[in-house]
Amino acid sequence: MTAETMHADYAASTKTIHPVWVRVCHWINALAILVMIGSGWQVYDASPLFGFTFPRAITIGDWLGGALLWHFAAMWILVINGLVYVTLGIVTGRFRRKLFPVGPRAVIADIKAALTFKLSHDDLSHYNAVQKVLYLGIILTGVVIVASGLSIWKPVQFQELTAFFGGYDTARYVHFAAMTAIVTFLVVHVSLALIVPKSLRAMITGK
């Protein structure tokens, strides 16, 4: 290995991939989302939409009132932290650099590469097309789950929002669907972090 190669490898290993604000927002969001999911499952169990309930062992709150307190507390943390994240992402240009451009051809090509285990993870500072779509999708899903949650929480005060979702009952289904999308994203996200452990290290150390 030449001196130039060693220097390049060292520079790559010390390159800042995720600034402090990204890491802080990421972990606050992760905690808030987990609390919202666990408490949301307890709220769901009080009035199930489908023919099943979630085991109490994986819910938060013990009863409906307690679950609602946890759910609303985590919701405000998620909303405030999400606004900070999106604002900084736009103002700093990170969203523009990281998430755009993205097109259907690139997405299809990267999906094929992923299915054949040929998708490269060498450069963590670059998001592939699939990652771009997933991150844009989860941001949009976050907006939908908060909006549908508000329409369920205050259907009279937010009656226009509730009507936008097709009424109270339909808003509950939308809220559940958004929750399912977020849980699915978390499963994929965590699985990929375990497969590519340096990505998890980068979200902790930034490098």
Q: What is the CATH topology descriptor?
A: Fumarate Reductase Cytochrome B subunit
Gyration radius, in Å: 20 Å
Total number of domains: 1
Task: Tell me the distance between the termini.
Answer: 23 Å
CATH architecture: Up-down Bundle
Please tell me the overall pLDDT: 89
Structural account:
The protein contains 9 helices and no strands. The relative contact order is 0.10. The chain has a single domain, classed as Fumarate Reductase Cytochrome B subunit (Up-down Bundle), CATH 1.20.950.20. With 207 residues, the chain is an all-alpha fold. The chain is globular, with a radius of gyration of 20 Å. The longest helix has 28 residues.
What are the SSEs and their pairings?
Layout: H1 3-13, H2 20-46, H3 64-91, H4 94-99, H5 104-115, H6 129-153, H7 159-164, H8 168-195, H9 197-205
Task: Summarize the entry for a quick read.
Helices cover 73% and strands 0% of the residues. It is mostly helical and 207 residues long.
